[in-house]
């Protein structure tokens, strides 16, 4: 994007690449309707089939062929463990009727003492979680390695943002192909999952990274969840974003303008981050929650998704009960974060400013 073009566009919403024609969101299920291009030479497609060793991943902002891996990890063969109360009920309630969550929590509390032997043994859960950690390039997905290039207003911004979209796509597809259960699902199912869930995975990954490593930056201070803390954190994030956007655009952006155009999105992302920071989410919980979020496809028609999702919900539950016996609601507290993640991701998709979560993480130095 040239300097002359920016001077004639006073808002910051145009920081999404002009060559991109974004798809409209289906109000019923948040799916992305087919149509639009990443650039004139990159056609968007919902075709999930493997063609000439590539996979086509479609989202609201990116489609590109991804080379197939030379090898795929073997699938997990252990069957899902039975649960005294279908944990899927909690997740369903959290996503559709949050008022019912307390009801399911109470039922779990009443039954868990007599059914602990039915929970997935922790050594099994530990091994499965370790495999998820090994295949998750947490820092690589949650941060930008070429941040200085993105902030340099002298180079073409539209090209850089298209490259960022390509990078997000590549990293998520590569992560998917490393998952232990990759071979258990058809390629078209994996494609559909990423098509519908990539923005949720992006928000969860960047927010969890901020919650875990941003907390280290702040020392031992933990989130108290107060309204004052929330507003202070939103203010800090807007200041960080303002500094970055001033550099990207080569001209000052007022705080009023910033609040008007991205204030709600920043608030929703900040809410997710503070919630994860308050509970002091661990990397083990993050990788489980990420898989659970991706596999959450109501009315998908694929029983395999429910089986695999239940498997990792039991993993998460086993981890929480083993490491946090004094927090009996921790497992449910993590699951009920998913609606907040969905809301933040929907706002991110609406604004098309996919770089914002990365800019918010730009102040973290590990």
Automatic annotation (TrEMBL):
Gene3D superfamilies (UniProt xref): Retinoid X Receptor (1.10.565.10)
Compositionally biased spans, kind Basic residues: 1-30
Domain NR LBD: start-end pairs: 124-366
Region feature Disordered, mapped onto this chain: 1-44
Molecular function via GO: DNA binding
Entry keyword annotation includes Transcription: yes
Keyword Transferase part of the UniProt annotation: no
Record keywords: DNA-binding, Nucleus, Receptor, Transcription, Transcription regulation
Database matches in InterPro entries: NHR-like_dom_sf, Nucl_hrmn_rcpt_lig-bd, Nuclear_hormone_rcpt_NR3, Nuclear_hrmn_rcpt
Pfam families, A to Z: Hormone_recep (PF00104)
Name by which UniProt lists this protein: Hormone receptor 4
Protein's organism: Portunus trituberculatus
Lineage: Eukaryota, Metazoa, Ecdysozoa, Arthropoda, Crustacea
Gene: Hr4_0
């Amino acid at each position: 994007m040239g300097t002359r073009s920016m001077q004639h566009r006073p808002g910051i919403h145009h920081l999404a690449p002009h060559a991109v024609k974004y798809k409209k969101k289906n109000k019923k299920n948040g799916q992305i309707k087919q149509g639009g291009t990443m650039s004139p030479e990159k056609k968007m497609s919902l075709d999930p089939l493997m063609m000439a060793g590539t996979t086509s991943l479609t989202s609201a902002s990116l489609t590109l062929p991804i080379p197939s891996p030379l090898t795929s990890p073997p699938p997990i063969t252990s069957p899902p463990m039975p649960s005294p109360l279908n944990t899927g009920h909690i997740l369903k309630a959290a996503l559709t009727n949050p008022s019912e969550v307390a009801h399911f929590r109470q039922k779990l509390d009443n039954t868990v003492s007599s059914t602990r032997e039915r929970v997935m043994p922790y050594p099994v859960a530990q091994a499965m979680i370790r495999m998820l950690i090994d295949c998750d390039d947490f820092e690589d997905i949650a941060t930008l390695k070429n941040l200085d290039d993105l902030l340099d207003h002298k180079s073409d911004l539209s090209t850089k943002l298209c490259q960022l979209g390509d990078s997000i796509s590549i990293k998520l597809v590569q992560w998917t192909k490393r998952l232990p259960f990759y071979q258990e699902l058809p390629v078209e199912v994996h494609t559909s999952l990423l098509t519908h869930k990539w923005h949720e995975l992006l928000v969860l990954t960047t927010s969890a990274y901020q919650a875990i490593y941003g907390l280290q930056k702040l020392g031992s201070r933990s989130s108290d969840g107060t309204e004052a803390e929330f507003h202070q954190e939103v203010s800090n994030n807007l200041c960080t974003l303002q500094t970055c956007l001033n550099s990207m655009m080569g001209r000052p952006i007022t705080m009023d303008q910033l609040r008007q155009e991205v204030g709600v999105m920043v608030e929703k992302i900040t809410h997710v981050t503070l919630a994860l920071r308050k509970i002091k989410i661990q990397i083990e919980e993050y990788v489980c929650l990420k898989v659970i979020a991706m596999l959450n496809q109501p009315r998908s028609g694929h029983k395999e998704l429910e089986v695999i999702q239940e498997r990792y919900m039991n993993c998460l539950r086993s981890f929480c009960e083993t490491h946090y016996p004094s927090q009996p609601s921790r497992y449910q507290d993590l699951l009920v974060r998913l609606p907040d993640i969905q809301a933040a991701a929907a706002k991110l998709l609406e604004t098309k400013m996919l770089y914002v979560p990365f800019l918010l993480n730009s102040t973290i130095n590990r």
